Amino acid sequence: MNRIESVFSRLKSQDKAALIPFITAGDPDSATTVALMHQLTRSGVDLIELGVPFSDPMADGPTIQRSSERALKHHISLKDVLAMVAQFRKMNQSTPVVLMGYANPIEAMGYKRFVEEASRSGVDGVLVVDYPPEESAEWVRHLKDQGIDPIFLLSPTTPESRVKHVAELAKGYVYYVSLKGVTGASHLDLQDVSSKLSQLRAHIRIPIGVGFGIRDEQTARSIAERADAVVIGSRIVEEIEHSQAADLLANVGALVESLRHAIDARSNHSSDIG
Amino acid sequence: MKMYDLPDKRGHFGPYGGTFVAETLISALDELCKQYEYYRGDAEFQTEFFRELKHYVGRPSPIYHARRWSDHLGGAQILLKREDLNHTGAHKINNTVGQALLARRMGKSRIIAETGAGQHGVASATVAARYGMECVVYMGSEDVKRQATNVYRMKLLGATVIPVDSGSRTLKDALNEAMRDWVTNVGNTYYIIGTVAGPHPYPMMVRDFQAVIGNEARQQMQEEYGRQPDALIACVGGGSNAIGLFYPYIGEENVRMIGVEAAGKGIDTQKHAATLVTGRPGVLHGNRTYLIQDENGQIIETHSISAGLDYPGVGPEHAWLKDCGRAEYVAITDGEALAAFHALCRFEGIMPALESSHALAYAAKLAPTLRKDQLLLVNLSGRGDKDMATVAQQSGISL
After folding, report:
1. Helix B92-105 and helix B23-40: axis angle, to 10°?
2. A272 FRET partner, CA 20 to 30 A, in A213, B10, B309, B346?
3. What confidence category does residue B324 fall into, taking pLDDT thresholds of 50, 70 and 90?
4. What does the radius of gyration of chain A's CA atoms come to, in whole angstroms?
5. Where are the domains of chain B?
């Protein structure tokens, strides 16, 4: 069982939803990222999505775009991100790390070299925003060769035929984008999320995480009542942006603890995965 | 050469093109593919498109023999395909008319566009006014400054211009922002991409609408000169005017096709936009193509005196035509383009856009190496009125 499976299987036995934060590697600087990852695990997260900064983050809103720009000021490269994961792994063997980013830094490194180095660094999954399943056959083969899970996005507009296609390719978990638009937007319809998740579960046999538009404890709890994992990105990145260096770990830690508390307080959990 | 039938069903030109977008955009693109597939074969749609090109755009655009300039250069004869005479002053309108007609049939009431030089923005605002649609144009704030006149033109036409302050504040950032708008408002919104880049079906669809340039040229050359030109020359930013001219000629292998990119301050400096000449393949803005990028795959800011060529990618069909050797790609500096701008003004009484001046500058280099009976057909893709301030500034004059 790999790290991602272990985490979800433990959570299932505890009847809990996973808390997945997103941070951009190198934001605000490379020295902070590994410390921040350890802080996140201490504050109770189950898996970390680590953003690979890119110059043109088309699917992200202004908050995450700015975090990318901050990281790129320090010239953080994909190689640097992998080094951060390796550094994190020296102290932490159990928390899965999923890289999330855009295709071109991986294209520049080459599939083969990337998956080998990612595997060596202790990366557990990779989500490439602009590799939809149609363009992913070779990419997924390379990932699976190295035992890395290909994570895919599903959206409110994904038709059933594509859900089936994603179900065949995806491993680890799938990431349901709970609203139309970019990261950091805010108009989440819980009714929609519930009905869409039950449709997805007809085909998807692995855990389903929900992200985009989750900005407060109450929404996090409501999502936790419906999904297997709650992904929180822009809200955490905002906390990083607005914190002074000296308070950054404490501020993010406090925010994450409150979210953890909220999602563990969920009721009526009706997940029927596995 | 075997029959050229690219792209494939998923929009691939060899290894290039495709649909490299986030899941949230896929269903909108699928819908667009389906609708365009239907209407490209629909006689009534095509009839309306060509009627609009004739009566609204003013097509066909003539081929003009630049005789005095050719004599001065002392070699091949330079012929100009006069896209600058189109309504709104550039080739861009061929495409926006086509896409606006499609948007109407798809029941969309709002169109959005990205623009660099402002020509595509003006062409989009124009058709939005013509067909009674709401129009929002995204433009890098740097370009807003460089192209103040075009910004005002768009506003006069009723469009809302939104300056984009992220990244390098140029065309690529405007494109990112337009994609974001589309993802958010896909229900009532149609995204008019202005060039042959982006995810499938845009590179194919924009090419098809712009192919009127090459199709007319083939007929006009036959009628007026009794033969086809020895070479086609067109500037390449994203590459829509070049593909429009080249595409109908791909099967005619004795016609050379030359795409001219912006060498800016020189391709050995960091300040250029010569994507095919200096770049490496990668993925950006929905397609795999050549990109100007650093060794880590980050996109590098480009530079050109002409905002319309200032883009770090290029249409995937050009990437393919380069790799298979059917087309050649070269680069022209800011200075060479300016010299060609002035030459055309003085020798022919035609003020070319700075974008088109790159193609003219290469023609001026090539012509003297050829015989006097050889013919170079240059796509004069736009007129230069919009560039007046830039040209004056280069001469130390403030208007």
Report:
1. 100
2. A213
3. very high
4. 17
5. 12-53+92-206, 59-89+212-394
- For residue B298, the distance in angstroms to the closest alpha carbon of chain A comes to 6
CA distance A170 to A1: 16
Question: Does residue A271 lie in a domain region?
Answer: no
- Reported as type and span, the H/E element at residue B23 is helix B23-40
- Tokens coding A27: 């934001």
CA distance B5 to chain A (A): 20
What CATH number corresponds to the domain at position A42?
Answer: 3.20.20.70
Range of the domain at A23: 3-264
Closest CA to B76 of B285, B302, B372, B346: B372
Specify the number of domains making up chain A. Answer: 1
pLDDT in tens, B252-304: 999 999 999 999 999 999 999 999 999 999 999 999 999 999 999 999 989 99
- Of B40, B191, B39, B200, the closest CA to residue B120 belongs to B191
Domain assignment of residue A103, yes or no: yes
Q: Which residue of A has its CA nearest to B178?
A: A58
Task: Please return the burial class of B389, using the count of CB atoms within 10 Å of its CB with bins 0-12, 13-18 and 19+.
Answer: middle
pLDDT tens, position by position, B104-113 = 999 999 999 9
Common-topology check for domains B12-53+92-206 and B59-89+212-394: yes
CA distance B106 to B84: 30
CATH topology of domain B59-89+212-394: Rossmann fold (3.40.50)
Chain B residues in contact with chain A using a Cβ-Cβ cutoff of 8 Å? 10, 18-24, 26-28, 166-167, 172-173, 176, 179-180, 183-184, 186, 280-286, 288, 291, 293, 295-299
Give the number of other CB atoms < 10 A from CB of residue A186.
14
In a domain, A200, yes or no: yes
Domain assignment present for A272: no
Cis bond leading into B7, ω under 30°? yes
Q: One-letter amino acid identity for B337?
A: A
Residues in chain A: 274
Are B194 and B92 in contact by the 8 Å Cβ rule? The answer is: yes
- State chain A's maximal CA–CA distance in angstroms: 50
- Asked if residue B258 lies in contact with residue B317, where contact means CB atoms within 8 angstroms, the answer is no
Residue B329 belongs to what H/E stretch? Answer: strand B327-333
For the segment A134-189, what is each residue's pLDDT rounded down to a tens digit? 999 999 999 999 999 999 999 988 999 999 999 999 999 999 987 766 565 556 77
Task: Tell me which residue in A69, A77, A108 faces B282 most closely, judged by beta carbons.
Answer: A108
What would the two tokens of residue A91 be? 């102290």
Over residues B68-74, mean pLDDT: 98
Alpha helices in B59-156 (DSSP H): 67-73, 92-105, 119-131, 141-146, 148-156
CATH architecture of structural domain B12-53+92-206:
3-Layer(aba) Sandwich (3.40)
Catalytic residues of A: 49, 60
Higher pLDDT, B186 or B58: B58
